[in-house]
Amino acid sequence: MKPIVTLIVLAVLVTACNSKQKETKEEKQSEIMETKKELSNKEKATALLESLETGDQTPISYINPNKYIQHNLSVGDGLAGFGEVMKNAPEDGFKAKVVRSFEDGDYTFSHTIYDFFGPKVGFDIFRFEDGKIVEHWDNLAELTQVNPSGHTQTDGAEELKDLDKTKSNKALVDDFLNTVLVNGGFDKMANYFDGDNYIQHNSMIGDGLSGLGKALEEMAKNGVTMVYNKVHKVLGEGNFVLAVSEGKFAGKHTSFYDLFRIENGKIAEHWDIIEAIAPEDTWKNTNGKFDF
């Protein structure tokens, strides 16, 4: 081969090689960008909830349209039920601000302040399959004034930590609920707390075990009972654990959602929403309030 031909061939090969390297580099960059764009399930849940206020249509795509099971008994099943709620929005729309959002396997759980047919606070649980939302549970309550210790229903700690302790923290909460609240072992309550160091966000109860004791005494005087019959689900991420239970409050069939913050193996902070379960003949779906 003549020298000039050899140079031409080499130039073509070098150009092709450089082009291939550039293409490979661009493909890798594209893959990295796609990975960065992929939201976590809890980010998707937050985006969907806050789209009630923003009107952003993108988060609707996070729902599997062929399989969306609704456990809010006031909402029809599937996307049609979700759409019906949106059609009945007030003139100035809904408001939604997610305060805390967590993830446990295929489940997410969020703590949100709403203006949803009036000021409310809520816990929402979503179940995902293949990155799509396929099921939803929630508990809602009216927004109230600060409690005897000056705390609101949503303020307090938000920092997620102790991810390596998720399993043990969930076990602690499950044991507390079943031992103390379901089976009535109130004499063992102190085992789950660091003395009286306990921050309470229930609108009727003050801080510490002393505040809880005082509230229970007042309830007893007024003939108000609170009974936990069954713990349906315990979800957690790091130092935050949400438990969903069924029972009775003031004689009414009730759903209890309790969010706990765990610190050094003890319950350090508590938020809750207590919602009476509507009579079955008023339900807009047949999926039940629990059925995890």
UniProtKB/TrEMBL annotation:
Keywords: Coiled coil. Residues 18-45 form a coiled coil. Residues 174-270 form the SnoaL-like domain. GO terms for biological process: polyketide metabolic process. The keyword Metal-binding does not apply. It comes from the Bacteria. PROSITE patterns: PROKAR_LIPOPROTEIN. This is Nuclear transport factor 2 family protein.
